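Recall that a protein's primary structure is simply its ordered list of amino acids. Everything else, from secondary elements to tertiary packing, is in principle encoded there. The following example makes that idea concrete.
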Amino acid sequence: MTSEFILNLADPQATLDSVGGKGVSLARLARAGLPVPNGFHITTAVYRRFVEKNKLWPRIQTALTETDIRQPAALETASRCIERLFMNAEIPVEISAAIASAYTSLLGPHSPAAIRSSATSEDLPELSFAGQQETFLNIQGVDAILSAVKRCWASLWTARAISYRIHNHIDHETASLAIVVQELVPAESAGILFTANPLNGRRDQIVISAAWGLGEAIVGGLVTPDHLVIDKSSGRILEQQIAAKQVMTVRTSGATTTQAVPVNMRNAPVLDANKASELARIGAQIENLYGMPMDIEWAISAGKIAILQARPVTTLAKAQTEPAGETRWAGPKRGIRYLRNNIVELMPDPLTPLFNTLGRRIINKALRLAVDHFVGRSLMPEEPIITINGYAYYNGDFNKSQIWFLLANSAGVMRRMFTGMEERWQEARPRYAGVVDRWRSSPINQLPSSKILEGASEIVEAAIDYYVAIVSGLIPAAWMSEGLFTAVYNLLVKQRTDPKAPVFLLGFDSAPIRSEKALFDLAEWVRTNHPDLAACLASVPTNRLLRQIEENTVPDEQDYNAWQAWQEKFRSYLDQYGAAIYDLDFAKPTPAEHPEPIVETLKLFLKGLGTNPYERQQASTRRREEAVSAIRKRLKGFRLALFDKYLARAQHLAPLREDGLAGLGYGYPCLRRLLLELGKRLTLANAIGQADDVFWMEESELINAAAALDAGKTAKPYRNEVQKRKAEWKNQKRLTPPFALPQRMKPRITVWRGNTKSSSSILKGIPCSPGRVTGTARVLSGPEDFALMQPGEVLIAAITTPAWTPLFAMASAIVTDVGGPLSHGSIVAREYRIPAVLGTGVATARITSGQLIEVDGDLGRVRILDN
């Protein structure tokens, strides 16, 4: 079937001008005999005829006339206007008849089809700007096909596509769109294949990502796929990482949806060795056909591989001929000690480039000023926080005279720190909030880019000033008061049958406890007032539920008013408690942005599982009061006076410490909104690939890019730099940073997490919350893994901060690399009455999710029972 309007998929007349970049690539694959699904092209001539017949071009020009490429809002407005023009226009009869005839004769009158846009300026070696236009899957019937075709044509005028053409000097009038209509592959599994390793640039390796269901879950970032590295010549698997695949995209009636992966498939490998080798062979064949590295989309149905798309890889890291060597850990100066403590504990991962430049610069300035104030002279190094292999370290670069001065004046320094510490905190809170609220109420999308960057810097400064206010008094005072009470109690008061010291500090209200109680209240409200909705919320997969909340779509058979009331209460909860931070690096989304762990804990309460936080707090309070009463009846004289004095101080400060830390994240939602607005503008300017790539730029680069946007100039592209920095960060993330440098043991070499070996099955740490539990380990790198946590598992993490608190309701025990008896994880674990062993140094490296482990919070020991 060949005409001006319609071409068979493999037709030799399928050229770039007639079928676009994606179409010409699929035609080339089909002619080479590769396994491409059957289909046909709707040519660019059809698009031009449609525009001409409906007299759309003059109205498109009008919509674009007032478009200012420096203002994303203006581009969005123009895009929506043009989309309405297309959807309201009629497809000429001769065109609709040709499309209907091709669909029914080549695929069948009711066959499910994939409608893929194919622009004349995509999937090219020099312009591989993929994803500008739309793809629609599982479209059935002639009417649905024609509607999807119009939506594809309209997607030539998305804000991103308009901006892309402007910045690449492509005339709008010359832009055209073809469409590929193909048989839909009912994929049991799908994924992406690179014929060269994008992380290290090696051309002798093939990299495959694989997940269950249709490939949209991978492309949309909804699932962490299996990751395979394959030797290109032999087809042998060199590396295989099996992810816990929680969701998959599947067909529904006339559309697709996301649903939970069956439990027995979540941790199962998607590809066996034979199928992975077969995929690699086809990938190498496609690379040979094109003569360059290729990015390939594939699917498997009934054991047969289908190739859905292939495009050149335009950005590839410089090739490495040898694997990366072991990483040496050494500071910039010999004989100087570098530590990962204090503020660095809130930076457990390698720093992202923007935080390493903008954030660390502000932190260093604030620390120098604070220490100078309390010490009375300039003492801190120029950079109090440095990075080694991407990780933050406290810089111990002090000479002997500085150390002696600090020791000689320590009493005065501490007196100045602890005098008025609560007042400093109370004064810092409204200052911080004032800065944030001012920028939150600003019309961000109307501001110049440089002004937005100025706002982001101002919020970071306010956040760090707030942190310095609590870390220079409130937090160390809370640590010291608990430590002093524990020492006095153990030395002068405690008898063999008396409870341990932490019992006297439990049961008080603090931000994490109030957050949990508010979530429990929300669950109780739903269960009591809307039991049908409660059952729905408890059973719907979390990702689908969050999508329904975002789109305000009412689940089937649910009452509209009940759904609206629940949404309002949930959003109110996120507004109040969703700003807690996972760590200081503002590249990490806040719980309000990704509330998956909050929803999982809510479901736990909806199902009647977990512990009632009110009852648990009341039990802790009763136990504390009974213990205090018993001790006071027994003590007299100076021992009673000491007990009362140090207990009162510790009880007063313990909850304030958690309140202070919880307030640190207040400005992060607004800060990220500002930076992501800049990222959106840079994406539209084709400087970066997606909005959150802004966090992988350095501060100086962002300053220059913002200035270019404001001046209407072309911003320098940073796509290659971003890709290389992400690859470097991933490699650094695999490292286990030593707590202190120089290391006492030689050689001073770290090990990669995946290759950590030890003959011992016992890890030793600090006993922080009593009790002994045997359970399944769940190693979590950060919020991106939170959905993997199941009730009753042992939470294994580098460190926990207030944003991790919802997971404590699900965990049977806590184990961390970093921390001690006075850290957040320790305090909250005791409130939740679950064992905790912190400060193991290597738990995330030595323990694997799914292993059976025993956690002894009394001895500070973790035993791996399943190797």
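The chain is about 45% helix and 15% strand. Residues 450 and 706 are 5 Å apart (CA to CA).
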